[in-house]
Structure formats: C-alpha cells, structure tokens
Amino acid sequence: VIEVVAVDADDTLWHNETLFELTQERFRALVAPWADVEAEHLDAHLLRTEQRNLAHFGYGIKGFTLSLIETAIELTEGRIPASAIQTLIDRAREMVSHPVELLPGVRETVERLATTHRLVLMTKGDLMDQESKVARSGLADLFERVEIVSEKDEPTYRRIITACGVEPGRFLMAGNSLRSDVLPVVAVGGNAVHIPYAITWAHEAVEVVERDGWWTIDDISALPDLIATLDHRD
Amino acid sequence: VIEVVAVDADDTLWHNETLFELTQERFRALVAPWADVEAEHLDAHLLRTEQRNLAHFGYGIKGFTLSLIETAIELTEGRIPASAIQTLIDRAREMVSHPVELLPGVRETVERLATTHRLVLMTKGDLMDQESKVARSGLADLFERVEIVSEKDEPTYRRIITACGVEPGRFLMAGNSLRSDVLPVVAVGGNAVHIPYAITWAHEAVEVVERDGWWTIDDISALPDLIATLDHRD
Fold first, then answer.
1. B95 and chain A: CB distance < 8 Å anywhere?
2. Which residues are CB-contacts of B39 (< 8 A; sequence separation ≥ 6)?
3. Do residues A191 and A184 lie in contact, with contact meaning Cβ atoms separated by under 8 Å?
4. How high is the ipTM of this complex?
C-alpha cells in the first residue's frame, strides 16, 4: 500500500521549461547583432557554460542568468554592450515573478490525492524561487511537507523517505524527469511514476505503461487510479 | 530545561561577511576607472540595489553578484566593459568555493553541546551554497537537522520548533543577528542568545549580559555554560 505520494513541481505541476526557453529565444535575438554565430552554436555554447557553472551556481534563474551573461560576453568577445547585460538582469527579475501556470488536471488530481494519501512536494532549485512558486500555486496547503532540495539523488530520497517515517515500498514519487524523479527512487526501493512534460499533440486516451520497475503515464490525471491499482495489488 | 539548541551558521559558526566585504573592496577598484564616484556613494548605490533585488533574488552570492553587475552598469552609465563584468562572475565562482573558516572555539563548543542537547543548524541563504558550506565545515554530523530557510521570521521559527516536537520554551537559538536570530525567536516564546560578530579587540573575560528576554555573549565558547545555568534555573 502506498502511504506517501511525492510529486515534483517544475514541469510536473506547473510550466517552467517554457519560461526558460522563451528567455533563451530572447537571448539569441539580443546577442545576434554583436556576434556572428548561428543559433545552434549559440545554444551549444550556452549549454556548455550552464554545465560548467552547475557545480558552482546550481539550478535556478539566478545561475541561469549568470550563465547567459557569461555566454554573451564570450561569444561576442566582449563586444556585448552593458545595456544588453542589463536587459538580461531585468529578464531575471521578470522570470522570478512570472505567474505560476498549473498544468491541466493538476489542481483536481492533487486535491483528490490529498483525501487519500499523505502528500509531499519535492522540488529542486533555488530555495526562494521555489518557495515563492509553491505559495503562488495555491496548492501548498494540500501538502504535508514541502522539500526543496539541491539535488534529487539516492541519498536525498533516502533522507526524505526516512523523514516521512515510512518504508521505501510505501513511498511513491511522480515527476517529469527520469533522471531526477524516477531512477533514484527505484534505486532506493521506492515506487516511481514518470509523467513526461510537453505532450503537445492531442491524445484521446490516457496511457499507462509499466516499465522496468516504474510506470509511465502521459497525464497527471491518471495518477490517482494508478495508485489505487497499486494499492489493491498488495 | 532547554532540549533543542539551534545555531546560525554564517558569521556565527564561520566567517562570511568578510568574504563579501573583500569582494566589495575589489568591486570598488574595478569600477573606479569607469565612474567618477566616491567610494561612499558607490557603497550606498550598491546597498540600494541589493535591497531592491532582495525580494527577487534573495540572500546569497548569486543575488549579490547580480546586484554588483547592475550597480556597475548604472554607476558607469553603461561604460563598464564586458571584461570587468566577467571578472565579477569569476569572483562569484571564487566566493562559492572559498574555504569555510570556522570562528574560534566553534568546533569545541558544538562538540560539547552535541553531547548534552539536540542540535539544529539553521541558516538563511542560497540552498546549494549553504549545503556545501555545512558539508565542508566538518560539523554536519553533530547536528540532528540542518534547516536552510529563505527567511528567518516568526512563521519560520514556529515551523522549525514544531518540526522538532518541543515547546518553544525548550528551544534556544544562538546567532549573530538580532533581527534574524534573536527577536523573532523571543516573539514566538523561545529562548535566544545573541553572539555579535567581529569582536576585533582583545578581551580577557567572556561577558554574559541578560537583555530584555534574551542574552548576549561575546564568544560562542560561553554558550554551554549559559545553557547549563538556564537548565538549572528551571
């Protein structure tokens, strides 16, 4: 029987990646007049900078913005004007205060799960930014605890499961990232459900696929029924 | 009887402010060739920028760096070269990986307290940065829990005290900030000890002063005896 249901936040409960993508689009346009590089090359350079900075700055809007500034300076060999860098910082402030847009079906699903299970919200990233989004989502009261962590790895899941006071087999995590929300949970003996983000095509039926130790669903609305099935199987 | 002792980290267990001050000194030198402003004016402008950005970027090195960049652009009216901005980002990476220097007496005091009380480390700031410092401090194992919070206000202290499962009267917080470590704790019915940072003059005797509902000591080494006195008084 599943007792604790943990869910990821960014791109599982609300849109996040689209905001970063939009910023990256604007970034390309901002840098273009000062650097003779193709969009692909620019994206690749930004990705390398982000990866290099991850160990120093972690996830989130501030670290992303510092990587944007650095990439702009490097790609333009210092020709980028200060006004363009100011625009990037202005954009960071915009991103931080951007409205939280829940994904379809999220509110109903979380409300329904809250009546049957202990719920934990578990998200990675910038502490203040994530707290602010949780508060603005209007969902905070439905969760028994909110865990904002710097990395979603096996030790982190072990710590959270222990803090919840349950056996790993009674813990289920649902989220859009195989690497962060599924594989480490399965590795520590927990249950995991993968809900990929950005299914942009129309689909009629919700599909539940059993994988090698976890499940994949294409809509969070299918989560309560899947959990009920697991509960009955025990 | 005090059951849980919580301590602040930055400038209570280890040096922090000095690192920011050193960066600010370098910042002045970096901006000086491009802006005809006095150091005082520059500091005041930076402070205003930091305060304006606090609601957006929170505490920590990344938000500080974004404020430095913004201040540099504004004060030089955009004349600051990209290479100087790159220097500020390089400095941010340096700050993040700067060695953690414990304050005098900290290790012995925390080790001693860990044998008599449940210890909580409670710090504000950037999640990843603080976690990294706690890990590098070598003190992490002495604490029952590490709480990294975005704001140290009354609701936060209520939440932590509840999570510890004690009455507020059995909770004691020690730290260098009256605003963050003392006043909100007293307000929710807890005990608080103020340990001001940067006592640069030599002093022979450790002084314990009872204030209006809290205590002030000028050295963390005095904390175990003060707590023992409080315990005996009950």
1. no
2. B28
3. no
4. 0.86
